[in-house]
Design goal:
Layout (H helix, E strand, L loop, with lengths): L6 H19 L6 E12 L2 E13 L9 H9 L3 E9 L2 E8 L2 E7 L6 E6 L3 E2 L19 E2 L49 E2 L5 H6 L21 H8 L14 E4 L4 E6 L6 E6 L6
Antiparallel strand pairs: 1-2, 2-6, 2-7, 3-4, 4-5, 5-6, 8-9, 10-11, 11-12
The protein binds zinc ion (3 copies).
Length: 282
Amino acid sequence: MTAEPSAAPSAALLRAALLAVAAALAGDRQPVLVREWADALELHGEPVGYRYLALVGVERGPAESGFDRVTEALTEARWTAHRWSGPTGGTGWATAKRAGLELTAHQGRGVGVLTLGGHTPVVFVPGREGLRQPLYTLSTGPGVLCPDCQGWGICLICEGTGRSHSPGSFGYGRCQCWAGQAGPGRCVDCAGQGRITSYSPPWTRRGHGLPDSAVARSAPRPEPTPATALDALADVAHRPCACGDLRCHWQLARTRTELRITGPCQACARPRSYAFAPPPAR
Ligand SMILES: [Zn+2]
Ligand SMILES: [Zn+2]
Ligand SMILES: [Zn+2]
């Protein structure tokens, strides 16, 4: 296994950038670094790069009606906010980019808890810097990684060139991906999408052993009252999914009767959900 290269600079840069935006929105309470992790990117079974991710939480962000402050804080910190949905039904979210970093801000209903999830581009190991960025790595995007292309979206036999290098193979120097629906150079299994999602055809999902997207989720049993909503988030963020994976971008929402923390597992696409008795308002 190749050592993770230059982890410190990329991960530290991301952490500092997220915490700076969070601090501008946190008022008098310190933002919390909930979790940091890395996605390995493989090519032909060898790790060729790593993407660093972090999740930061702010206990009492701007009031729900003040979600515009999130996009203002991003702009002030030189992020380009490129999509946002202002408070609708009590929730708001925004995505932004800065120098290759990407961020999603999400404000849950009723809690005032704001989460900032961010990731770096894939940092390639020495000697593989010429590789292109994949469409997805394990923790980015919906659904699960295409098992054939591991999120690259390209045909890994020809590495996206569409050319066959083995003489006498399928059709006149053409790679077998020419026969795929998405065209030469694209992954045949996911039609170049890189991930298998709830929008993928049911036979594709079943073929990869994914739960049927129509399966109803059972309501979780409420757990004891956490001290704060952020404590509950920090707790949940360290619990593995039934498949054993921790990767998840959590969202919070609070009603009069419960604090709900939800997110789809990034490794198996299972919807995950935890409910707590709501902590006292502060
Ligand atoms: Zn694929
Ligand atoms: Zn190919
Ligand atoms: Zn899972």
